[in-house]
Amino acid sequence: MTERGLVAHLAAFGGALRERGVAIGLGEEVDAAAALTLVDLLDRDEVSTALKCALKVRREHWPLFDELFVRWWSECRPSPHVEHHTRPATDRTLPRASGKGGGASPGGVEGAGREVAAGEPGYSAEAMLRKKPFEEMSQEEIAAMERLLARLSRRLATRRSRRLVPSRGRGLPDLRRSLRRAVGTGGELLALARRERAIEQARLVVLCDTSGSMDAHARFLLAFILSLGSAAHRAELFAFNTTLTRITPFLAGARVELSLDRLSAGVPDWSGGTRIGECLAAFVGQHLDRVVRRSTTVVILSDGLDRGDPAVLAEAMRAIRARARTVVWLNPLMGDARYRPLARGMEVALPFVDHLAPAHNLESLEHFLTLVPA
Amino acid sequence: MRPEIRATQDAMERHGYVADSAIATAVYLARTMPKPLLVEGDAGVGKTEVAKVLAQMLGAELIRLQCYEGLDVNTALYEWNYPHQLLRLKISERDAADPAALERTIFGREFLLERPLLRAITRPDAPPVLLIDEIDRADDGFEAFLLEVLSDFQVTIPELGTLRAEHVPYVVLTSNRTREIGDALRRRCLYLYIEHPTLEKEVRIIRARLPGVDARLAGQIARFMQSLRRRRLARAPGVAETLDWTRALISLHLDHLDAEAVEATLGCILKDAGDLRALGEADRAELVAESA
I need a labelling partner for B77 at 20 to 30 A (CA). Which of A233, A350, B167, B172 fits? Predict the structure, then answer.
């Protein structure tokens, strides 16, 4: 293959990776091109390692990379192949604006259009993309919720950092800055500078159940977690039903209503069944180490109606509890005064939950604020 | 395999680091392109060692910046030596020197304390190896600052002006993934993920690092560790644990593994109370039998 052919082939390979959801930028491709000039092109393993290294392919994407690598680098394919291989990446992230009739009120899922995205990146093959409109939430409702949730998330996730920042009048003496100032006054120490521990930005992880049994509450709760996400400076959001989907990207920089549209389009198997245990276990396996730290508050929004193996759920909850600062379980069923946390999933998870609270309307969330220690 | 990469691999091995081709390729690319190398992997797989062995191979100075939560620019980059400056001011009060000259004096290089990052770009003779260890522990603000230093290799000190790197250092960053590293920083680097070693590699590591070890014992230990890692553990032991354990067994004058020896020394490899409890007598016997 000529050098130009190689670069074109590399670019096409990068495109194929991107299409499957591996984030690769131009910079990575430039690095990879440089790296290919430094390795033995006839040694496939070496080419593979060099590409992984230069394209910065993360460990979790290795199986996908290896699969594509075999397809693309076994024999020299002509690069025109690219054309039908690349689809606009925007397909997936654009809000599905089509309002699917008023029939799709909470609970009326069947009215929502079905769409099977065959081989779409990052989606399990069986899970169906179902759309669900959020029109019912009024502007005022959303605005009221956002105000409330800004307070809530500060309460949930504020903590003092280990880092010291200059402060006025209180805190520990800061000799370094005091002396620095004294240099200006010829070595006379006129006033002591002080510093204190910085207030850290909010850090939240929210896991939201979007299964059929949660349907009546889903619209409200999603608005809730989206507001949490924008109020907290660092929030990671996940939706789960039969599979776990990281939904933080849908939120990036958008207003709540817009995000709601994107979400209903982007979460697979909306209003399907629940496998809380498996999903939380998947969360523990794939994300826990990275997104949950000692300073993180984990909020789980679910009715705890689980059809899976209770042992799996218990094990996942134990792992989350061991790592997080606080685990909060918000249960919309608790709005009913007769409710007791007897659902099997709920019962198993309860020992690992710091706060179990109702979440069926704004009032219950306000009450919840008073429960959580600052 | 390209001869240069083979040479890198051999050189690393000569300095006691058993590298597979992935590690050797990454180190070679990082040296040649040259770009910072971001190394990730579980605890104890030898991430920090990559930087150390690179420094030994090049005969370069190793400058280490250990990151932690709350690490600030004054600890990482530079600091004025204030007590020293004040003393100089006091001394010069008596001979009423020219104030401008005095200011130039007290903000001169001799009053500057070099912290690791500044030190790494001001070495006059040869490029050093800069190890930025556990970058995931520092906060995002520091990461952004680091990005600036790593892209320009220059530092601006208001009182002194801009200091440009005499020699661009070789940079190795390590991360345990307790926090996701920002994309911007990731993009500046080449990436290496070190996995737990294969059986053959682990045997070679044990024998390279502890030449006194009995060949049979080394094989048994490696097989034991391999089967142990296949089990569900909260904290899988790394190569560091393997080596500690081997040392412990050697100092107990053992030449083979048995249930008794394993029970007495299990604390060298399992460092989680839950894991220790979960690995009962029957499991240990099974592991010993598998490794025989």
Answer: A233
